Amino acid sequence: MKTLQIDIVSDIACPWCAIGFARLEQAMQELAGELSFKIDWHAFELNPEESAEGQPILEALAKKYGSTPAEMEKNQSGMMAIARDLGLNFTRMQERRTRNTFDAHRLLKWAAEQGRETDLMKAFFEAYFGHAENISDHDVLARYVDSAGLDGATARTVLASDNYSDAVRKDEAQYQQAGISSVPAFIIDQQYLISGAQEPDYLVQALRDIAVGEVQTQQG
Q1: Domain map of the chain by residue range?
Q2: 3 state SS of 39
Q3: 54 touches 134 (CB < 8 A)
Q4: What is the pTM (predicted TM-score) of this model?
Q5: How many CB atoms lie within 10 A of CB 220?
Q6: CB 175 within 8 A of CB 42
Q7: pLDDT digits (tens, 9 = 90+) for 30-42
């Protein structure tokens, strides 16, 4: 059975990244008898300069996009419905604050060494969108490490150090230089780019086409 490598450029603070991966999971399940997959996650920070306090998300997004908090609330309500249909917990996504995710990305690099990066990423998505947790807080991060079945005490040791900082910065620089400016971005076999949270049916066909070498266009 052919194995496709999928490199996912993503941020914990990106709702479409959670939705996009849930859709990818559905596509991979449909293709389970045809293809196998190797998933690697790569860091992208939506709010690299964010302060510890953060900002209320609706106000921050309204300012960023030249809109109003009411318009952002309506937009996010649509995302909440999409997430709910995918089985994701986005219950408190409108209550969250903007957060710096650098330390969370460091823990994802640590989890990757144990083959558990996807488990931890999904736990962090749940923390941020389902519970409006402060995902820059070390206590919160360690708690969700535990919830993902990893060792919270070891995670605290990582957080207290500078471990994996270079790996996160290398990731960010590499994909910025490659032209990735928005997430999620799915890079298949280090050659084909699928941008955004595409529908499962689209992903199934795209992955089939890539597997048999029949790709004619890329989704950008």
Answers
A1: 2-211
A2: strand
A3: yes
A4: 0.94
A5: 8
A6: yes
A7: 999 999 999 999 9
